[in-house]
Specification:
- It is a single chain.
- This protein is mostly helical and 261 residues long.
- 76% of the residues lie in helices and 0% in strands.
- α1 runs parallel beside α6 and α6 crosses α8.
- The radius of gyration is 19 Å and the shape is globular.
- It starts with a helix and ends in an 8-residue tail after the last helix.
- The model has no long low-confidence stretch (mean pLDDT 87).
Length: 261
Amino acid sequence: MAYALVYWFSFRRHSTYRLAALGEAVSNTMFGFLRAYVLIALWQSRPGLGDYTVLDAITFSFLTQALIGPVQIFGGMDLTERVRTGDVSIDLHRPADLQLWWLADDLGRASFTLLARGFVPMAAGWLAFGILIPSPGRWAAFLPALLLAVAVSFALRYLVALAVFWIHDSRGVEAVMMVCSLFFSGMILPLVAFPGPLGTVANALPWSALVQIPADVYLGKRQGWELLGAYGFQAAWALALILAGRLLTRAAHRKLVIQGG
């Protein structure tokens, strides 16, 4: 019940800033058009690249813009600042698990951003280009992939936040994480367009679980055993990173330094 309340209050807190959410949705939509035209030029010059059609590439562009908020490609967690200022000491004294508390908080944030920022880019893409809208069955397959993507995203950002217990300034780590999230997730360019060993490595890294795999499921590129394999890949990375977060949380309990005191 405690974590359900954390989820609900996180959802309500983020829903307070409706105008900001609308502005972000419009911005995501505009970048969706810019990316769409870049991908159109690429796929017209290289038809069938990565088994994508031009319409697949356009759909990928608007879908990934809709996913920016839920999987939090940009930005970190409020926990990072709480560790830096020492306010995390309050969190550690709560009768609740620190990692589960922030997971519930992040799920509330992701739920609101999906509703507030996800539909506008998709609607604009459908009106302008007639992007692919999947069947109910494919929607049902896409939602678990999206949930697992949020879980992997949380686990990565949670590790970055905990790193502040030791390094005290997370800006460098956050910058590296953002570059990796943009490049290796498929946010800048679909990973199917990456050549040879680079594509193999990029698809094996956890960031591919954030954007590329949910997009492939949405587009129907993963079906049958491949779909189960995609879920397994995401779940394995989520479990491994969450377990790493639990181990680091235990170490952090013994390593609390408040800057300035």
